[in-house]
């Protein structure tokens, strides 16, 4: 916000640097689920680029992709698919096949297909995105790790548990190296992997992985954060299945009390 204000003080409001800063701010709002604020930011971006640049300039296409991601986040899936499809077609025509923007746009398109339950198409697209990232980046680059995590979730939802495990293990190692063991993406992947182990009938590995995720959630986010409570509930389910009812009860009570505080504070 400080950078955007500084640009506004120094430049005309339609200067390209202000438009760039506005787009970055809009993307941050999408990432933090502040969708109304994102809409307010991204709305003027395309208009600003249209005034300053050619209609086929890559910045306009990038802004269109951002808008497509916003539509997807708001549940406007038809509009999102139309925008993201046009972006991918433009990138394919204008850029080298191994350009990172093509891989990023392909991944966005695959995630949208997954949201729309077009699972076979989503898997194919996400595989393509992962391959594209591998061509353009180092294997431990965060974009590749994100693609592996996304593909793992899709494979799990399709019941392809062994393939999903490989993707989650890849993502867990990559996030741990790039972001640290206490980063939310690392912990979220560990939690996903623990649930997958349970689905695979690997109770020892499931308990170990979910316990680890729970301890780190508790440390970094606090005992009453929704992610911590979800992990506590999952661990309770695993412990109950393993014949550890007393420990399971402790986890369920932790989750129940926390959910009540988080979701119905006015009723306490």
TrEMBL record:
<dbReference type="Pfam" id="PF13424">
    <property type="entry name" value="TPR_12"/>
</dbReference>
<protein>
    <submittedName>
        <fullName>Uncharacterized protein</fullName>
    </submittedName>
</protein>
<dbReference type="InterPro" id="IPR053137">
    <property type="entry name" value="NLR-like"/>
</dbReference>
<dbReference type="InterPro" id="IPR011990">
    <property type="entry name" value="TPR-like_helical_dom_sf"/>
</dbReference>
<dbReference type="Pfam" id="PF13374">
    <property type="entry name" value="TPR_10"/>
</dbReference>
């Amino acid at each position: 916000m400080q950078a955007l204000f500084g640009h506004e003080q120094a430049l005309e409001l339609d200067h390209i640097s202000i438009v760039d800063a506005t787009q970055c701010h809009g993307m941050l709002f999408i990432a933090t689920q502040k969708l109304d604020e994102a809409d307010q930011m991204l709305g003027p971006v395309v208009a600003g680029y249209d005034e300053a640049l050619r209609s086929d300039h890559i910045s306009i296409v990038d802004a269109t992709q951002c808008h497509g991601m916003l539509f997807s986040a708001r549940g406007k899936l038809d509009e999102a698919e139309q925008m993201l499809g046009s972006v991918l077609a433009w990138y394919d025509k204008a850029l080298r096949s191994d350009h990172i923007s093509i891989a990023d746009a392909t991944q966005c398109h695959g995630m949208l297909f997954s949201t729309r339950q077009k699972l076979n198409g989503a898997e194919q697209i996400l595989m393509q995105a992962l391959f594209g990232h591998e061509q353009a980046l180092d294997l431990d680059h965060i974009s590749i790790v994100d693609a592996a995590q996304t593909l793992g979730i899709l494979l799990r939802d399709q019941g392809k548990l062994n393939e999903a495990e490989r993707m989650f293990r890849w993502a867990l190692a990559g996030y741990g190296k790039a972001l640290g063991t206490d980063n939310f993406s690392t912990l979220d992947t560990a939690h996903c992997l623990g649930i997958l182990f349970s689905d695979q009938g690997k109770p020892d590995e499931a308990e170990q992985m979910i316990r680890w995720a729970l301890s780190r959630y508790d440390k970094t986010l606090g005992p009453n954060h929704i992610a911590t409570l979800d992990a506590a509930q999952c661990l309770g389910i695993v412990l109950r299945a393993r014949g550890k009812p007393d420990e399971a009860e402790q986890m369920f009570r932790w989750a129940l009390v926390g959910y009540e505080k988080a979701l119905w504070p006015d009723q306490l």
